[in-house]
C-alpha cells in the first residue's frame, strides 16, 4: 500500500517560491493500478519523483509498504528504494549495454551474484516478450522494445511498487496498447502495485482501477474508476467518457445518465418510452470498456408533460442507471 499525507513540494525559482505539489493526500491499495491524469505542468512528474524520494517533499509524509520514507536516513532510503521500480518516458537505457545487460545492471549494483542475475534476466526477458532480443543493443530495438527493456529493468529487484512516468507518450497508438497490456499482465502475474503518470485519458481508461485528476499541483478528484464514471457530475469521468457540449438551449428536460456492466447493454431508454410514453433524444455520449467493465454515459432530453420528472428519473434509477438533472 502507498499512502501520501499532505505532501507539498515547493521550489525556489529566481527569488520566488513555486509550489509544484500542493497538499496531496492519496492511498493506493496493494496490487492496484492507479492512474494520475493531468496536463503538462500539473505537477504529476514532481509527485512521482516524491514517491521514490528522488525529490524530497517540503512537507508531508510518504509511506510505502508500512515504511515512512521521508524521515529515513540516506542509507536506509537506498535500501527502501529497491522495493520501488521506475519506468521512464524516454527509456533511459545505456547505449553501450545490450538489452540483457541493461536489465542486469541494477542487480549488479546491489551485489546479486552472477548466476542469480543471469537467471533473473532470462525470466524478465520472457516476461516482457523479448526472449530473442537479449543480445541486441538499444540502437537495434524499436521504441516499444526499448520500453519493454525499461520495464524489465524496473522489475529486476522484485519491487512491490512500479512507477511509470509517461511511459507510453513517446510511442505510437498500437505500441501504446501493447505496453499498457503488458503493465496489466505484469500486475496480474506478480501483484505489483502500479502508479501511472499520464496526460492521456486512454491510458487510464484502458487499465487503471482507480485514478486522480491533477491540476495546479492538487488533486481535484480521485477514486475508483467505476465509482467515478457512475457519477454524472464527475470531471474525470467526463474526460474518460465524454458526453459532448451541454447545449441547454435545446428545449426539454436534460438528463445525464451513467451505467455499467449489464446496464450498459439493457435497452432502458426504449423501455422508458414504451412503459411511460416518453420520447427521449440522445444528445451525446460514450460507451467504453473501463477498468475491465463496460460502462457508458449519455446526455438525453425529453419533453415535459409526457410524464412527471419524478416518474422518469425514478424509472431509470430503479433499473440501476445513475441520473442527474441538468
UniProtKB/TrEMBL annotation:
Signal peptide range in chain numbering: none
Record SMART domains: AAA, NIL
Listed CDD domains: ABC_MetN_methionine_transporter
Keyword RNA-binding: no
One Pfam family it belongs to: NIL
Residue ranges of domain ABC transporter in the record: 2-241
Domain of life of the native organism: Bacteria
GO terms, molecular function: ATP binding
Keywords of this entry: Amino-acid transport, ATP-binding, Cell membrane, Membrane, Nucleotide-binding, Translocase, Transport
Official protein name in the record: Methionine import ATP-binding protein MetN
Gene source species: Mobilicoccus caccae
